[in-house]
Amino acid sequence: MSAVLATLRRRLSPARFLIGNGMPYHGRRGWNLALVLLIVATGAWATAESPDFLTFHYLFDAVEGAAVSALLALGLTVVVIIGEIDISLTSNLALCTVAAGMLGQAGAPAALIVIASLLVGGALGFINGALVGYLGLPSLAVTLGALGAYQALAFIIGGHAGFTAFPPAISALGFGAVGAVPVSLIVFLAVAAAVSVVLNLTTIGRTFYAIGRNPEATRRTGISVPFGRTIAFVVAGLVAGLAALVFVGFYGSGGGDSAAGTILTVVTIVALGGVDIYGGSGQISGVVLAALLLLTIQSGMALLNLSTTVQTIVIGALLVLSLAASEIMGGGAWRRGLARSLARLRPASGGPEGGASPGGGE
């Protein structure tokens, strides 16, 4: 462990930080307040539509069902902050459930199942991160391929039936409670707090923000940008491995189709949480509030017996609207692109045909 920590310090310890001195990397001003107001409004709407919304049992079940997507969103947030994307997290989760199921079927103890799921998730994240960080491949293409490859591997290993034998301790992660609080909610809040501490109070967290804002300038400070990108994908993979345990605990089974089709919800939570999709900005508190908002909206639609198709349309619309709002409030990548284009035009106007040359003189 000491050797791992020493490697992290060596690879991610710049002489000075790019972020600081007023550079905004914590998120959009007023974004969290807007989310709180929307949560109150949608909660009032759902309660008006059905008094069952505020019943303990309904909220308990809703929180348990939403925990997996919310956990995956925490992992994806780290990847998006460095300016990348990972749409293979649901397939990563599926393969982790297969690994957990194989050990559960063999009678392995819960501790070994937890370790195995985390190792598999972290290893798959490392593969994605190494391809993106060290080979320079686009993360969208890499994780799109991984989305299909990991899911296919999960089906090959686990078959279409999957696994249903898990120890009671694993089942408690998704379907247990401490008093009146679901265990899955405790797990989510604990992971959210841990990721928030890493992002805001550690060298590696500030490095993630720096890479997302300006990878070239970050490299010039002595930081290994490929290594930093790889670590971000590993973190997302570890969270996917934990989410896999919550999934099999709640649903009682694991296989190639685990969490299939939920990546849209995961990406929407991240965007709705105010995380800059281009990297370098965002905070976990916004993602937590966005998960609560989306839970409230989905619960309200379920009480109205709206079809899955209609719910998908609403989630997709929320994704587009949140991205548009982020562009408007944050200045938008289109302004940064315009500035870069104008900068490229300036040397051309100062050439031999446009006046003084860059070197000056006549």
Main sheet: strands, sense, barrel = 2 strands, antiparallel
Domains, number:
1
Which runs of at least 5 residues are low in confidence (pLDDT < 50)? 14-24, 348-362
CATH class category label: Mainly Alpha
Q: Might you state the CATH topology name?
A: ABC transporter involved in vitamin B12 uptake, BtuC
Q: Helical segment tally?
A: 15
> What Rg is obtained from the alpha carbons, in whole angstroms?
22 Å
CATH architectural group: Orthogonal Bundle
Please state how the strands of the largest beta sheet are arranged side by side: 1-2
Strand content: under 5%
Describe the overall structure:
It is globular and about 60 Å long. It starts with a helix and ends in a 13-residue tail after the last helix. 71% of the residues lie in helices and 1% in strands. By secondary structure, it is mainly alpha-helical. Mean pLDDT is 85; it is low at 14-24 and 348-362. It has helices at residues 2-11, 31-49, 56-81, 89-105, 110-133, 139-158, 168-175, 183-201, 203-213, 215-220, 225-251, 263-272, 284-303, 308-330, 333-349, and strands spanning 177-178, 181-182. The protein has 15 helices and 2 strands.
Main traits of this protein?
71% helix; ABC transporter involved in vitamin B12 uptake, BtuC; mainly alpha; 362 residues; disordered C terminus; two-stranded antiparallel ribbon; 2 strands; 15 helices
Map the helices and strands.
Blueprint: H1 2-11, H2 31-49, H3 56-81, H4 89-105, H5 110-133, H6 139-158, H7 168-175, E1 177-178, E2 181-182, H8 183-201, H9 203-213, H10 215-220, H11 225-251, H12 263-272, H13 284-303, H14 308-330, H15 333-349
Antiparallel strand pairs: 1-2
